[in-house]
Amino acid sequence: ASDVYKRQVYPPENGIDLTATYPGWYRAVNWKIHYPTSRSQYIIDFDDTLGLDTQNDASSDYGIAYAYTEVIGDTRGEMRMVPESSVPIEIFLNGSLVYSSDSDDDRPQVYLKLGKNTLLVKFRKQPGAFNFRLNFEEMSTPIRYRWWKPANHTA
Question: How many other C-beta atoms lie within 10 A of the C-beta of residue 148?
């Protein structure tokens, strides 16, 4: 079943609409706002964030989930992406696939452009923990960037 999920393209991969509602397997799904904090070491615990009860509800063992953010490049250049995930993922930077858990490169080199850079992460949920963290490491030239937070989004 995991290979079917991997190959399937879902609406967020065709364009981001943070106000959209999508048909889900058990119910309609939509985007939820969540900001990781330093207190959580910037780890997103999706079980907690999405209100999943994987201990008692098998319907949340498998599925697809997405996370979206924007990174604002105050300067541009190459960086090393450092993803950490408890489930298989794919990461799209500015619409292009730049990382897959299935690849041998666990710290891909990416190019952050000046201004807005979009990041979409596709998760293939499996039984067990469901968490994620993403960092960037500088390479030869320091790159200044900041994470975007939507000011007026209500979902």
Answer: 15
Alpha-carbon gap, residue 111 to 145, rounded angstroms: 12
DSSP-derived letter for residue 49 is H
Q: Are 62 and 25 in contact (CB under 8 A)?
A: no
- Residue 44: closest CA among 54, 33, 53: 33
Q: How far is CA 137 from CA 64, 111, 144, in A?
A: 28, 12, 11
CA atoms within 13 A on the CB side of 50: 21
Phi/psi for 2 (5° steps) reads: -60, -40
Sequence letter at residue 18: L
Contact 121, 132 (CB under 8 A): yes
Q: For residue 85, give the 3-state DSSP assignment.
A: strand
Give the span between the Cα atoms of 124 and 148, in whole angstroms: 24
Q: Which amino acid is at 74?
A: D
Query: Across 9-76, where does the E strand assignment appear?
Result: 21-22, 29-30, 44-45, 63-73
Return averaged pLDDT per consecutive 10 residues of the chain, 155 residues in all: 65 91 86 76 78 64 86 91 92 94 89 93 86 88 76 44
